[in-house]
Amino acid sequence: MKFCPKCENLLQYHNGNLYCKFCDRYWHQYNDELKLTLNQTLNQKDIKLLEKEEKIEKVSETTNFKTLTYRNFFPYEEYRQHQEKIIKDIELASQERKNTLLVAPNGTGKTIVALSAFLPIAINKNLKIIYLCRTHAQNSRVIKELTKISNYLESTNPNLKVNGLSIRGRNEMCLNKTLVSLKLNPNESMAVCTDLRKNRNCSYFLNLLKKKGQNDNPINIAPDLLNKPVDAGELIKYCEEKKLCPYFLSKYLLSEMRLIICNYQWIFHPFIRENFLAFIEKELDDCILVLDECHNIIDMATDINSDSISPYSLRICLRDLELYRSPILMQSFIKILLNHLEKKKKQLNIEEKEIDAENFLFQVYTRLGLSDLNSFKNFIKELHEFSVSIHDERIANGEISRDYIGALAEFWLKWIRCYTLENYFFCYTSREIKGKNAIFLEIVALDPREVVIPVLKSCYTSLHLSGTVNPYVYNNLMGLQETGKKFKGIVADSPFKKENIKAIITDGVNTRNENRTALTYKKMLSKINEVIASTPANIGIFCASYTILKDLIANGLTTIAINNNKQLFIEEQGLSASENASLINEFKSMALAPNNGAILLGVCGGRNSEGEDYPGPYMNAVIIAGFPYHLPTPRVEAKINYYDKVFNKQGWNFAYLYPAVQRANQASGRPIRKLKDKGVIIFMDSRFKQKYKWISEWIRNELEIAQDRNGALSKMLSNFW
Ligand code: SF4
Q: Would residue 248 count as lying in a domain?
C-alpha cells in the first residue's frame, strides 16, 4: 500500500499510475520514493503549484520561520493608539486573503502597520510585497521604515534578513544622455531605449551585461545591495559611480527582493505589469499589494485605459509614411484626420466637445472610400503591420525610432472595440501646451473597475491605505466586492490631540462662479489676512482652481503678504518637477528663524496640496479657498450619467461631489503630518457647511463655524498658538 506524500491518504492505481483522489495528483515510484508523474493529466499549472509548495516548505524548514508574527518585525518600543489592534486585524485579513481598506490619518503609522503585518506571511509563504506609491517621497518613507525593521532584526534575530528596493520609471533612472535629452513620454522612451540596446549603443547597459557575467546572475553585479533596503536615489548614485544602467540593474535585482516599492502603473498597466512580473519571477497571486494613498487609483485606472491623438503625432505619422513610401491610402487617412482636427481647432470655443463615436467612425471610413467597418478594421491592421516594418528597418539601420504609426493604429483599434460601450466617452479636447492651443481626439474610459478588478482578483491579498478616502464610495468605484475576495474595512480613530487641531468653516463666503466679484475677493482677502496675521510661521493657501488663485493675486494677496512680512510663493502651471521641488524647499526654509514664515499659494488637487508633507512650522495653517468642484465638462457629465446607471443613482455624489471633497480633504491634512503637529485648517467657502459629512472624520470632529464678522477668525485663533 502506498500513501500520498502530500495528504497521506491511500493512493489508488489509475491509468497505470498511483493516483491520489484527495489531491488530484498522480505519482510514480522511483527508488522507493514517490515522485510526481508528469503525465497529461497533470498540467503545467499543477506542476508549478507543486514546485511552489515545495519551495515554500524548503524555505520554512531551513529557516524555521513558520511561527513569525508581526511582533518579530515591529521595531518600535511602543505601539501608538490602536496600532497593535490594526496590525492584528490586517494580519488576520491577509491570512484569509481579503481586500482590506484602512482609513487612518497620518500619524497612525500606516507604513509600519502594513510592513509588520505582511512580512511574516510574505516570508512564510515566499510571497513578494509590492508597495505602490504615488511620489518618490512616499517611496523613500517606506524604505526608511524597512531600514528600521532591518536594523531591529540585526539585534533581535540576526538570521532573519529583510531586503527591499524602491524603483522608478525609465525616464527617472536613465543615465544615457541621448535618451535623457529627448525628453520623451514613457512609451516613446521605452522604444528608444530598446533601439539603443539592440544597436549596442548604450554603454551603461553594455557595462551592466558584462558585470552580470556569463552565468547571467544578477547577484554578481551588486551583492552589497541585496542584503538591505535600498532607495532608488541610492541605486542611481551607485550606478553613476560604476557607470551602469540603474533602470535595468533595479530590474535584475527585483527577483531577489522581498519588498518592492514602485508607482501604481507597474501593477495596474497591463503591459508594464507583464514585464514587471517576468522580472520579479512571480505571478500576481504570489504578490501582496499595498496601495498607498489609494484614492489616487480611481483616476489612475481610468487614465491608463484612455487614449488620445493630436495633430502633432499625426504630422509625424505622415512624415514617416511619406518617407517609407507607404500605400497612398494610409497617407490620405492621416491627411483626412489632420484637416479635420485643424478645422475643429478653429471652431472649438470650449475646452471639450462630445463626439458621436459611431457616426465619426462612419464618416472616417466612408471618406477613405471604404465600404464598411470591417474593411476599415483590416486597413488599420495593415497600418499597424506597416509601422512594424518601418520600425524594423530603422533598427537595422541603427536609427532611433519612435513608433507613432503603431500608436495611431492602436488608438483606432480601441475606438472600434469601444465605440458602442457605455463606459467610454469620445471627445475633442482643447488644451494649452507650452503657451499654444492644442487639440486632441480622445477616448476616455469612465469606469476604473475595468482595470482594477482583474488585479485585485488575482493578487494574493491587498491592503488599501488612505487618510481621506470615503469607504463607501471607494468600495463601489474600485469594485472591491466584485473581486471574489472578501472585504475588510478598518477606520482608525484620530491619533491627534484635540487641542492641537483648529478646524473652521468660514461663513459669508461662497466662491460659486456667479459670486466671484470684487466684493467676494475683498471679503476673502480680509479673512485670509486675519489667518496670516495670527500664524507664527508658514501658511498654505490651496485654491479651488487656478482662476481663483489668479483672482486672489489680482485683488491684493501680494500686498497682504508684504504687510505681514511673509514671502509669497506661487505654484505655477507647467513647472517642472525639479523647479517645483526647489520652490517647495525654499518655502519650507522660510519657516525657520530668523525668517518670519512664508505663504504658499497653490491649488487643490495639485502636487503641492497632495503627496507633499509640511510638518511642524513648515505649515502651521492651511486655507482651502473655495469648494474645489471640477468644471462640469461633458466628460464629467458623461461620468455622472454612467455612474447613475451602474451605481444606483449615485452619479452626482460619486463623479462630482466626492472628487471635490477628496481634493479638499487632501489639502486640508497637509499641516498635520506627525503626532506632535499643531495646525489650523480653514475651509473658506460656506458650502462646506452643507457638505461637512464628507470631510475627513478626524477633522470633522473638531469643526467650528466662524461668523461672517470682521475679527471673528482672529479671535478664534488668538488663543490657539
Ligand atoms: S539601457 Fe538604461 S541607461 Fe541605456 S538608454 Fe536604456 S534606460 Fe537608459
A: no
Smallest CA separation from ligand 1 atom 4, residue: 202
Q: Is the pLDDT assigned to residue 44 strictly greater than 70?
A: no
If asked whether residues 524 and 620 sit together in one domain, one would say yes
Q: How many other CB atoms are found less than 10 A from the CB of residue 29? A: 13
* Helices vs. strands in the chain: H and E counts, helices first: 30, 23
Per-residue CA distances from 579 to 404, 571, 572, 575, 576 (Å):
30, 10, 10, 6, 5
Say yes or no: 512 and 433 in one domain.
no
Q: Where are the beta strands (DSSP E) in 306-395?
A: 307-309, 352-354
Mean pLDDT in residue range 318-325: 95
Same domain for 417 and 529? no
Calculate the CA 108 to chain-centre distance: 21
Pair (696, 569) in one structural domain: yes
Q: Which domain holds residue 43?
A: 12-63
On whether residue 46 sits in a domain, the answer given is: yes
Collect all residues with Cβ–Cβ distance below 8 Å to 240 and sequence separation of at least 6.
175
Ligand 1 pocket test, pick from 188, 235, 245 with the greatest ligand atom count within 8 Å of Cβ, gives 245
Establish whether residue 561 lines the binding site of ligand 1, counting it when its CB lies within 6 angstroms of any ligand atom.
no
pTM to 2 decimal places: 0.84
What does DSSP assign to residue 335? H
- Give yes or no for a contact between 364 and 379, defined as CB atoms under 8 angstroms apart: no
CATH number assigned to the domain comprising residue 381:
1.10.275.40
- Average pLDDT of the chain is 89
